[in-house]
Write a structure and sequence with these properties.
The protein is of the alpha+beta class. It is 23% helix and 27% strand. The chain contains 7 helices and 13 strands. The strands form 3 sheets. Strands 8-9-10-13-12-11 form a 6-stranded antiparallel beta barrel. It has a 5-stranded antiparallel β-sheet with strand order 2-3-7-6-5.
Amino acid sequence: LCTTKSGALSPISGTGVVVKPDGLILTNAHIAEYLLLKDFGQKNFIECNIRTGSPAYPRYRAELVYISPTWVENNKGLLKEQDPQGTGENDFAFLRITAMVDNSNLPESFPYIQMNTRENISVDEPVVLISYPAGFLGGLSILQNLHITSAVTMIQNVYTFKDGTVDVVAVGGTVVSQKGSSGGLVVDKNATLLGIISTSTDGDTTSLRELYAITVAYINRSIKKELGINLETFVKQDMAEFAKKFQEINAPNLTKLITDELNKN
Protein backbone atom coordinates (compact mmCIF):
# COMPACT_ATOMS: atom_id res chain seq x y z
CA LEU A 1 0.00 0.00 0.00
CA CYS A 2 1.47 3.35 -1.10
CA THR A 3 -0.06 6.53 0.30
CA THR A 4 0.68 10.11 -0.74
CA LYS A 5 0.81 13.44 1.09
CA SER A 6 -1.44 15.26 -1.39
CA GLY A 7 -3.69 14.72 -4.38
CA ALA A 8 -0.92 15.09 -6.95
CA LEU A 9 -0.89 11.28 -7.17
CA SER A 10 -3.51 8.78 -6.08
CA PRO A 11 -2.64 6.14 -3.45
CA ILE A 12 -2.22 2.62 -4.80
CA SER A 13 -2.90 -0.84 -3.41
CA GLY A 14 -1.49 -3.88 -5.15
CA THR A 15 -0.34 -7.42 -4.51
CA GLY A 16 3.11 -8.99 -4.44
CA VAL A 17 4.62 -12.36 -3.61
CA VAL A 18 7.72 -13.35 -1.64
CA VAL A 19 9.85 -15.54 -3.92
CA LYS A 20 12.94 -16.03 -1.73
CA PRO A 21 13.36 -16.75 1.98
CA ASP A 22 15.35 -13.51 2.37
CA GLY A 23 12.22 -11.43 1.65
CA LEU A 24 12.55 -10.76 -2.09
CA ILE A 25 9.15 -9.75 -3.50
CA LEU A 26 7.98 -10.02 -7.11
CA THR A 27 5.29 -7.54 -8.18
CA ASN A 28 4.28 -5.34 -11.12
CA ALA A 29 6.33 -2.41 -12.38
CA HIS A 30 3.17 -0.26 -12.35
CA ILE A 31 3.03 -0.73 -8.57
CA ALA A 32 6.78 -0.54 -7.88
CA GLU A 33 7.20 2.72 -9.81
CA TYR A 34 5.76 4.47 -6.74
CA LEU A 35 9.02 3.67 -4.94
CA LEU A 36 10.85 5.69 -7.61
CA LEU A 37 8.72 8.71 -6.64
CA LYS A 38 9.24 8.65 -2.88
CA ASP A 39 10.41 12.29 -2.81
CA PHE A 40 8.28 13.63 -5.70
CA GLY A 41 7.92 17.38 -5.06
CA GLN A 42 8.78 17.04 -1.36
CA LYS A 43 10.66 14.78 1.03
CA ASN A 44 8.86 11.49 1.78
CA PHE A 45 5.91 12.46 -0.43
CA ILE A 46 5.05 8.76 -0.86
CA GLU A 47 5.13 6.10 1.86
CA CYS A 48 4.91 2.45 0.88
CA ASN A 49 4.41 -0.38 3.34
CA ILE A 50 4.15 -4.12 2.84
CA ARG A 51 1.01 -5.45 4.47
CA THR A 52 0.25 -9.10 5.22
CA GLY A 53 -2.52 -11.09 6.82
CA SER A 54 -6.28 -10.93 6.41
CA PRO A 55 -7.30 -8.21 6.93
CA ALA A 56 -4.06 -6.72 5.60
CA TYR A 57 -1.94 -5.12 8.30
CA PRO A 58 1.20 -2.97 7.82
CA ARG A 59 4.15 -5.17 8.74
CA TYR A 60 7.26 -4.47 6.66
CA ARG A 61 9.16 -1.70 4.93
CA ALA A 62 10.73 -2.46 1.58
CA GLU A 63 13.09 -0.98 -0.99
CA LEU A 64 13.19 -1.20 -4.75
CA VAL A 65 15.62 -3.84 -6.01
CA TYR A 66 14.84 -3.75 -9.72
CA ILE A 67 12.19 -2.37 -12.04
CA SER A 68 12.25 -3.05 -15.78
CA PRO A 69 13.82 0.06 -17.37
CA THR A 70 12.11 -0.91 -20.63
CA TRP A 71 8.72 -0.73 -18.90
CA VAL A 72 9.49 2.70 -17.37
CA GLU A 73 10.65 4.07 -20.72
CA ASN A 74 7.50 2.84 -22.48
CA ASN A 75 5.07 3.84 -19.70
CA LYS A 76 6.55 6.99 -18.20
CA GLY A 77 3.28 8.91 -18.63
CA LEU A 78 1.02 6.19 -17.23
CA LEU A 79 0.42 7.91 -13.88
CA LYS A 80 -1.19 10.90 -15.64
CA GLU A 81 -3.92 8.74 -17.16
CA GLN A 82 -7.31 8.46 -15.46
CA ASP A 83 -7.85 4.80 -16.33
CA PRO A 84 -4.48 3.47 -17.49
CA GLN A 85 -4.41 0.42 -19.73
CA GLY A 86 -1.38 -1.71 -20.50
CA THR A 87 -0.42 -4.93 -22.21
CA GLY A 88 1.63 -6.31 -19.32
CA GLU A 89 4.80 -6.27 -21.42
CA ASN A 90 7.84 -5.85 -19.10
CA ASP A 91 5.45 -5.10 -16.22
CA PHE A 92 7.55 -6.63 -13.45
CA ALA A 93 9.71 -5.45 -10.56
CA PHE A 94 11.41 -6.78 -7.44
CA LEU A 95 11.31 -5.31 -3.94
CA ARG A 96 13.21 -6.35 -0.82
CA ILE A 97 11.90 -6.37 2.73
CA THR A 98 14.31 -4.25 4.79
CA ALA A 99 12.67 -3.65 8.19
CA MET A 100 9.64 -4.18 10.37
CA VAL A 101 7.16 -1.29 10.58
CA ASP A 102 7.30 -1.51 14.40
CA ASN A 103 11.14 -1.58 14.32
CA SER A 104 11.30 -5.06 15.88
CA ASN A 105 13.76 -7.64 14.51
CA LEU A 106 13.08 -9.11 11.08
CA PRO A 107 12.45 -12.88 10.98
CA GLU A 108 15.44 -14.97 9.92
CA SER A 109 13.51 -16.18 6.88
CA PHE A 110 10.15 -15.60 5.20
CA PRO A 111 7.60 -18.07 3.83
CA TYR A 112 7.98 -17.97 0.04
CA ILE A 113 6.83 -19.64 -3.15
CA GLN A 114 9.11 -21.15 -5.77
CA MET A 115 9.05 -19.46 -9.17
CA ASN A 116 8.54 -21.80 -12.12
CA THR A 117 10.09 -20.78 -15.46
CA ARG A 118 8.60 -23.68 -17.45
CA GLU A 119 7.51 -22.82 -20.98
CA ASN A 120 4.96 -25.60 -21.46
CA ILE A 121 1.80 -23.91 -20.21
CA SER A 122 -1.45 -25.10 -21.70
CA VAL A 123 -5.06 -24.02 -22.05
CA ASP A 124 -7.41 -25.67 -19.50
CA GLU A 125 -4.59 -26.10 -16.99
CA PRO A 126 -6.02 -25.59 -13.49
CA VAL A 127 -4.58 -22.70 -11.46
CA VAL A 128 -5.25 -20.87 -8.20
CA LEU A 129 -5.35 -17.06 -8.18
CA ILE A 130 -4.45 -15.24 -4.96
CA SER A 131 -4.54 -11.49 -4.38
CA TYR A 132 -5.85 -8.55 -2.37
CA PRO A 133 -8.65 -7.26 -4.63
CA ALA A 134 -9.75 -3.73 -3.70
CA GLY A 135 -11.96 -2.69 -6.61
CA PHE A 136 -15.19 -2.42 -4.64
CA LEU A 137 -13.73 -0.93 -1.44
CA GLY A 138 -13.48 2.71 -0.35
CA GLY A 139 -10.30 4.24 1.03
CA LEU A 140 -11.07 3.49 4.67
CA SER A 141 -12.01 -0.12 3.92
CA ILE A 142 -8.75 -0.62 2.01
CA LEU A 143 -6.87 0.63 5.07
CA GLN A 144 -8.78 -1.41 7.63
CA ASN A 145 -10.65 -4.24 5.96
CA LEU A 146 -8.75 -5.57 2.93
CA HIS A 147 -8.81 -9.37 2.88
CA ILE A 148 -6.78 -11.87 0.90
CA THR A 149 -8.89 -13.66 -1.72
CA SER A 150 -8.33 -16.76 -3.80
CA ALA A 151 -10.14 -18.46 -6.67
CA VAL A 152 -9.69 -21.77 -8.48
CA THR A 153 -9.97 -21.41 -12.24
CA MET A 154 -8.38 -22.57 -15.49
CA ILE A 155 -6.12 -21.01 -18.07
CA GLN A 156 -8.47 -19.98 -20.87
CA ASN A 157 -5.95 -18.78 -23.41
CA VAL A 158 -2.26 -18.14 -23.96
CA TYR A 159 -0.68 -15.19 -25.76
CA THR A 160 2.72 -14.05 -26.99
CA PHE A 161 4.19 -10.56 -27.34
CA LYS A 162 6.23 -11.52 -30.40
CA ASP A 163 8.30 -14.72 -30.29
CA GLY A 164 5.62 -17.42 -30.23
CA THR A 165 6.45 -18.12 -26.57
CA VAL A 166 3.79 -18.17 -23.82
CA ASP A 167 4.20 -14.66 -22.39
CA VAL A 168 0.68 -14.04 -21.09
CA VAL A 169 -2.08 -16.33 -19.84
CA ALA A 170 -5.75 -15.38 -19.67
CA VAL A 171 -7.83 -16.57 -16.73
CA GLY A 172 -11.58 -16.13 -16.49
CA GLY A 173 -13.62 -13.69 -14.48
CA THR A 174 -13.50 -14.51 -10.76
CA VAL A 175 -13.83 -12.61 -7.49
CA VAL A 176 -10.11 -11.78 -7.93
CA SER A 177 -10.89 -9.73 -11.08
CA GLN A 178 -10.67 -6.32 -9.40
CA LYS A 179 -8.22 -3.46 -9.02
CA GLY A 180 -5.64 -4.27 -6.36
CA SER A 181 -5.10 -7.75 -7.79
CA SER A 182 -2.16 -6.54 -9.89
CA GLY A 183 0.90 -8.52 -8.87
CA GLY A 184 -1.31 -11.35 -7.59
CA LEU A 185 -0.28 -14.97 -7.85
CA VAL A 186 -1.10 -17.55 -10.50
CA VAL A 187 -0.17 -20.86 -8.86
CA ASP A 188 -0.15 -24.27 -10.56
CA LYS A 189 -1.08 -27.68 -9.17
CA ASN A 190 2.51 -28.20 -7.95
CA ALA A 191 2.20 -25.08 -5.74
CA THR A 192 4.75 -23.16 -7.83
CA LEU A 193 4.37 -19.64 -9.17
CA LEU A 194 3.45 -19.67 -12.85
CA GLY A 195 2.82 -15.95 -13.31
CA ILE A 196 1.64 -12.67 -11.80
CA ILE A 197 -1.57 -10.82 -12.67
CA SER A 198 -0.85 -7.67 -14.66
CA THR A 199 -3.94 -6.43 -16.53
CA SER A 200 -7.68 -6.97 -16.83
CA THR A 201 -10.53 -6.09 -19.16
CA ASP A 202 -13.41 -3.86 -18.05
CA GLY A 203 -16.77 -5.24 -17.00
CA ASP A 204 -19.65 -4.34 -14.71
CA THR A 205 -19.13 -7.49 -12.63
CA THR A 206 -16.06 -9.57 -11.81
CA SER A 207 -17.44 -12.51 -13.79
CA LEU A 208 -17.35 -10.40 -16.96
CA ARG A 209 -13.73 -9.35 -16.53
CA GLU A 210 -10.84 -11.26 -18.03
CA LEU A 211 -7.60 -11.26 -16.07
CA TYR A 212 -4.23 -11.50 -17.79
CA ALA A 213 -1.01 -12.60 -16.14
CA ILE A 214 2.56 -12.42 -17.41
CA THR A 215 4.32 -15.74 -16.99
CA VAL A 216 7.44 -16.31 -14.88
CA ALA A 217 8.92 -17.82 -18.04
CA TYR A 218 8.40 -14.47 -19.76
CA ILE A 219 9.96 -12.58 -16.82
CA ASN A 220 12.92 -14.97 -17.06
CA ARG A 221 13.39 -14.14 -20.74
CA SER A 222 12.98 -10.40 -20.13
CA ILE A 223 15.58 -10.42 -17.34
CA LYS A 224 17.98 -12.18 -19.74
CA LYS A 225 17.46 -9.42 -22.32
CA GLU A 226 17.86 -6.59 -19.82
CA LEU A 227 20.62 -7.92 -17.55
CA GLY A 228 22.24 -10.74 -19.53
CA ILE A 229 21.50 -13.32 -16.80
CA ASN A 230 18.57 -15.61 -16.20
CA LEU A 231 16.08 -15.32 -13.35
CA GLU A 232 17.69 -18.07 -11.28
CA THR A 233 21.09 -16.34 -11.42
CA PHE A 234 19.50 -12.96 -10.72
CA VAL A 235 17.79 -14.05 -7.50
CA LYS A 236 20.93 -15.82 -6.23
CA GLN A 237 22.79 -12.49 -6.04
CA ASP A 238 23.20 -10.44 -2.88
CA MET A 239 19.95 -8.51 -3.19
CA ALA A 240 20.96 -5.76 -0.75
CA GLU A 241 24.09 -5.05 -2.81
CA PHE A 242 22.20 -5.25 -6.12
CA ALA A 243 19.52 -2.87 -4.80
CA LYS A 244 22.15 -0.37 -3.64
CA LYS A 245 23.81 -0.27 -7.07
CA PHE A 246 20.48 -0.08 -8.90
CA GLN A 247 19.32 2.82 -6.75
CA GLU A 248 22.60 4.68 -7.23
CA ILE A 249 23.11 4.08 -10.96
CA ASN A 250 19.74 3.37 -12.61
CA ALA A 251 16.95 4.67 -10.40
CA PRO A 252 17.71 8.44 -10.67
CA ASN A 253 17.37 8.35 -14.47
CA LEU A 254 14.14 6.32 -14.26
CA THR A 255 12.74 8.70 -11.64
CA LYS A 256 13.56 11.66 -13.91
CA LEU A 257 11.79 10.06 -16.87
CA ILE A 258 8.56 9.78 -14.83
CA THR A 259 8.79 13.13 -13.01
CA ASP A 260 9.54 15.03 -16.21
CA GLU A 261 6.34 13.56 -17.64
CA LEU A 262 4.32 14.33 -14.48
CA ASN A 263 5.57 17.94 -14.45
CA LYS A 264 4.45 18.63 -18.02
CA ASN A 265 1.36 20.87 -18.31
